Structure of Phenylacetic acid degradation protein:
Amino acid sequence: MTTAPETTARRHAVFHRLRVAAVDRLTDDAVAVTLDVPAHLRDEFRFRAGQHLTVRAPGLAGDVRRTYSVCAPATGDVLRIGVRRVPDGVFSGYATDHLAAGDELDVMTPSGTFSPDLDPTHARRYVAVAAGSGVTPVLSILATALAVEPLSTAALVLANRRPGTIMFLEDLEALKNTYPDRFQLLHVLREEGPDLELLSGRLDTDRMHRILDTVLPVDDVDEWFLCGPLGLTDAVRSTLLDRGVDPAHVHRELFHVGAAPVRRRPAAPDRAAPGSTVTAVLDGRSTTVTVPRDGESVLDAVLRVRADAPFACTNGVCGTCRARVLEGAVEMDGNWALEPDEVARGMVLTCQSHPVTDHVTVDYDR
């Protein structure tokens, strides 16, 4: 292992300890957590609509990290996330049952590229399709877009089980009341749905096609934002592409993809063969480590010598561990966080990356 001196400023996400300002009950199993950002950290915690935070609770055993989208508009000074309890969820159970104002959390600075490029002169049509807690980033995106672009309009198709399970229902109704002529809200409910059959039931491919036929013509929409389980976003994305929508205008963020990805590349036949040398640039400091080509990921190897390397989900979903390949090549097992243009620019998810050349250099500082 070799280490070079620090030369450049840090640009990747890092943890800071923040005080919890408020915990507000949203549903029986979900809360909104508002964080108090001190004045000296406000610049570091400025976020773009749709970005997310990685959080951990100092009181929980182990390094339990979870990623949650910021659900507040990017036009204000509020930093807030929504947390829904999941079965056996270590952090979500703690947050929904025990977290209170005055407690402290370790919070990473904002990450993610699930964001629109906004311009006050634009007149665009934004449509989001989300399910359950997938409402959190799109609430931020649509509220920000409507505030920043007065000529633009927006719509949200939101799938839930029943009215009592809808997160941020009051915020959505307030957004509708603020922009009655510019924001359209469609609740699709599997249970206790409205009398309108179109919006009562599961949001499957057939129902999505009918919504596009009758309510949201694809030719009127400039940008699509999808957030929810892999199956739902896959189905909606396929529906849009079948309708001729340009894939470049369909943006997706996932909260869960199910089982861990399967390695596509077979293991090297000679397990005794030396691995690749991987140099990681982090906070301007270069660290080199040997990585076997058929074993641990680049992130795992870097963490052996640099505990400060950024990561969260390690499943290729959140994008916290992203870095740019400067030399050599890697292969990713899975990728649900990077846009095609980012991959074209050499960005990779180090938690999914394995070297395929003798020497690889990745830059977390980008």
Residues 135-148 form the longest helix (14 residues).
